[in-house]
Amino acid sequence: MSDFGTLESRVRRKSLLSKVCKAEDTIKYFQAGQNLLWSGFTPAGYPKEVPIALANHVKANNLQGKMKFNLFIGASVGAETENVWAELDMIDRRWPYQTGKNIAAGINAGRIRMGDKHLGLFAQDISYGFYTENGRYDIGIIEVSAITEDCGLALTTSCGIVAEAINLCDKIIIEVNTGQPSFEGMHDIHMQQKPPHRAPFLITEAGSRIGTPYVPCDPDKIIAVVESKRRDKGRAFADEDDTSAAIAGHIMDFFTHEIKKGRLPENLLPLQSGVGSIANAVIGGLAKGPFSDLTVFTEVLQDTMLDFFDGGNLKVASACSLSLSEDPGFPRFFDNWEKYFDKIILRPLSISNAPEPIRRLGCIAMNTPVEIDIFAHANSTLVGGTRMINGIGGSGDYLRNGYLKMMHTPSARPSKTDPTGISCVVPHCSHIDHTEHDLDCVITEQGLADLRGLAPKDRARKIIEKCAHPDYKDQLTEYLKIAEKECLAKGVGHEPQLWDRAFKMHLNLAQNGTMKVKNWDVKVDLCE
Amino acid sequence: MSDFGTLESRVRRKSLLSKVCKAEDTIKYFQAGQNLLWSGFTPAGYPKEVPIALANHVKANNLQGKMKFNLFIGASVGAETENVWAELDMIDRRWPYQTGKNIAAGINAGRIRMGDKHLGLFAQDISYGFYTENGRYDIGIIEVSAITEDCGLALTTSCGIVAEAINLCDKIIIEVNTGQPSFEGMHDIHMQQKPPHRAPFLITEAGSRIGTPYVPCDPDKIIAVVESKRRDKGRAFADEDDTSAAIAGHIMDFFTHEIKKGRLPENLLPLQSGVGSIANAVIGGLAKGPFSDLTVFTEVLQDTMLDFFDGGNLKVASACSLSLSEDPGFPRFFDNWEKYFDKIILRPLSISNAPEPIRRLGCIAMNTPVEIDIFAHANSTLVGGTRMINGIGGSGDYLRNGYLKMMHTPSARPSKTDPTGISCVVPHCSHIDHTEHDLDCVITEQGLADLRGLAPKDRARKIIEKCAHPDYKDQLTEYLKIAEKECLAKGVGHEPQLWDRAFKMHLNLAQNGTMKVKNWDVKVDLCE
Known about the structure:
Chains A, B: Keywords: Cytoplasm, Hydrolase. Chain A has two domains: 7-228, Glutaconate Coenzyme A-transferase (3-Layer(aba) Sandwich); 242-470, 3-Layer(aba) Sandwich (Glutaconate Coenzyme A-transferase), CATH 3.40.1080.10. The first copy, chain A, is 30% helix and 19% strand. Chain A contains 17 helices and 26 strands. In chain A, strand 19 (382-383) and strand 20 form a beta hairpin. Chain A is globular and about 75 Å long. At the A-B interface, helix 4, strand 4, helix 5, helix 13 and strand 19 of A face helix 4, strand 4, helix 5, helix 13 and strand 19 of B.
């Protein structure tokens, strides 16, 4: 495929053709301090021409730090937009997720005020009016495939928060992407009212369609239509390695066991799989695995989802975003368009990540944390408890509401000086995004700890036994032993911790480059 | 009311009359190690005769520690049952919530293995087969008001997990409570299938009824029918004091503000209010307040709910449990039966606490934590991070899914030696049950911190300013200042913490009886 149709053929609402202009022509609408809503979700379906033109304008006119915006988007977007904006000091507030070296640096340096929110909550909370003084936003920038005669927006590779945005923005700029095929028909848009007038989502399987393919838009709000030929800058993932293959293997074995026990149907339940290399490998494992007739109900579809379809095991996939790599993902997708198109449903974030369908369908939720602790709390957001990576994303939406709530991580990672300097199993997480009340299973390349029905101390022993890296097993066991002893002596032994020493591994990493420590019995007096 | 009908009139399934026996006659069915499911939710609707007979049996025969059971109940039950069982060392495992001095002592001493789970998850997870080896339970003990001709169970003051229990137990013992009126007709029982065959809950307002008043039960499973005249031993709450009145006042002001801003309807949205004195006072405030035509969609109805109805502001209340005090709550309720009966709907825990209706209806969630931290994480379960109180209960079910997610607490509590020795606002919670991604507002008697849309450091400043006790404002500000400075120097300033000192207040409390500390700038070297 290479001829994707003209702008004129894509814009079927002919009155809008008078609003066609170049990206540069929209710069006049922007001024510092505005609240902006964009389409996009992970590097998929985000506006490109206008943000890039604005960045060029700021650069050319030395407006760094003088033209800052508050940026609200369903999730992260491509680095050529938000990350360049961060580099040019064009972002004041950023909600609820982000990706990019510069933007992370800006957040951690305190220049960018970011808040990360469960994505499924964010989508509804903006519609409730929670993020700006009057609940309104100045400009929405929305990438579309096409515009229907009655001004329905056919979106591109993601739905994100567009359904909410078109009601919350006073002005809308449309980017029509003619650099790729039209995704018209892939989306299932269901417009919700606010409480107390909300109705059930009548989704009873991953493939249910409950709405229309279009986001209805008031044509009078559209102030500009810009043609774009830029494609999504999706990341390619690392190939499967021994660690991710071992993790995928443990998960396959566990599924087989659960089917035998009668706790999972033969075709499992709808799968949710987070973003990243391990999640990608797990889906790769399922593509080759023994289970067939599977369905996916998730947030983001990544490259291995194509293998999953190709292998014949996957019937249908529902997501908020089709987030393939720029190469080889999208070219492969476009070359086999007919094979995939009808099997994919893209939904608004407020539905893909809503507790209602996730719980009703009984999703199997699988996500990767930064670290987990022995009692099964998980840190998904802040390295060392203080440094923001990307945000919580949708992990909580799925882990709280799924049928099985699973987290997978390597047991250890390299520090600068020690190949296993960072243990991903710690006495106490330095930041907690998912609690012990949420998780059913923890998986590392070492094994799978099935925590269902276990009390805290039993969980701790199981996690250390099954999941900790051999370099850390003894020291974690020693910590637990001493914590149990010292706490029991005070009659507070339900979930033993030593608050003068719980972060010793983290502090040692910061100071000495490794989490390997000894002498847990040395008490520290912090009192006065 | 004093004549509540005979056992014969209550048991309309006449074939069951042959199974009527004394509680003592059921002892033969019990043996150590069994998995038991009980009706009950908070001290409401739990079996009494059989558990008390079993306890007497253990005591009389010196079987302490030799007759231990695994006890799975919707939530806590009356102290005369589970707490006495704990005293007699009759409990091995206890899920997912409990109340009582002895049972808490047993858990903290490590004799009783307890796990606390979001109650809404627990109800579904037992039906998934997650808590026992084969997913089955030996005996269910269920309190009912009546049994219909076709063996439908009309429950009493709570629904709890009975709808799940009758399918999971091999044997069922029924207690028919003739010591109080029959609650037949108050319950709305909807039997769910497991995924992937689950259907939507068609609840669109707090008062929606979607099922029948009865739990269908296989009569062949019923091995005994015992008459009981014992009433629920509900606790009375402390009268409203200045602190809880001030908290209620801040919440009323906030609601008024939100209505003005167009973010809440004039009759608010369905209210959820946690268990305890502050929650009780908030409902008391609403009973006297300016808002009318209100609805409640919650987990537990407490005494002030009667004031709320009497004041005329409350239309309807949906809950899992009618948990009134033994005196004056229940006598008042029984004396005004007609006034209240039709306005109350009792639902199964798996529906009262399900994310689906909570989010659809847009509940206003209000709960009390043990402590909150400056970044808006909350501890609901473990004092000092290690000592179990009751469990997380349903707080997470509502706080994650509500329209507004609010937590209220006194700003400080007395320690043994200092009237304000415990600050309920700390640098970092010693246990985290609700995360910064969940909470919208924190309220103490000092004020209300509206955290919506605030980045972590802005949240911290707001919480200290609005919520901290005056005795702690300076020291929390000082901690934040030093944490910001030290973290920024390392470029990790998104959510600043000092891991060598974050628990200094907690450690000082344990050692010196107060959280009042100084000298945050003194670093501690934990490394080797």
